[in-house]
Amino acid sequence: MTGLADQRSQPVPEGVDPALFDPNPGHSNANPAGIGFAALVREDFRTQEGGLFSQGFWALFWHRFGNWRMGLPKPLRIPATLLYRVMAKLTEWMAGVHMPYTVRVGRRVRLEHFGGMILVAQSIGDDVIIRQNTTFGIAGLSGLESRPVIGNRVQIGAGAVIVGSVHVGEGAVIGANAVVTRDIPAGAVAGGVPARILRAPQNPDPERHA
Fold this sequence. Notes:
The structure is a single chain. By secondary structure, the chain is of the alpha/beta class. The chain has helices at about 35-50, 55-70, 75-95; strands at about 95-100, 105, 110, 115-120, 125, 130, 135, 150, 155, 160-165, 165-170, 175, 180, 190, 195-200. It has one domain (about 1-5, about 15-200): UDP N-Acetylglucosamine Acyltransferase, domain 1. A hairpin with a 4-residue loop joins β14 and β15.
């Protein structure tokens, strides 16, 4: 059901920086600002640490390409779009990573241990680590516009499920196989089904909440 939300819009959730939220995704180049396409690809290459054989690198490359093409003139965008669609599907089949270009992805995101990744979030922040068999998406057919927002420096364990219009706060840790359907505060550790807070932030800041 997660793929149904790819092109939908939604309001900015409470506590989320509007600058990191695109209410109508897919209509412009949403790659991180302040860095060019080539430099972004080089940074992703270094982040994945697997070289040209890293499935995470190729999933991110075609995601970045899908956004970059949106800045091209329409005559050039048409063949670029065809190339993107073919390669994104091949990456999904061969690497087991589904991450539409409509997902706003930050810098130095690391896709560890490829496979079984359905990453249909509203946004994924900087320096996030995502492990295998992870699902981001909608919670049900009644919430086609509701997708999660993953903050900066979040770590997500293998098999985690994060669904609905939830905000995982900056620096939070989501345990393996956790099912997250509610906001997780910044710096917290969460786990279980459904996920609950296992360790609260050591230095809670009222200005930074999920």
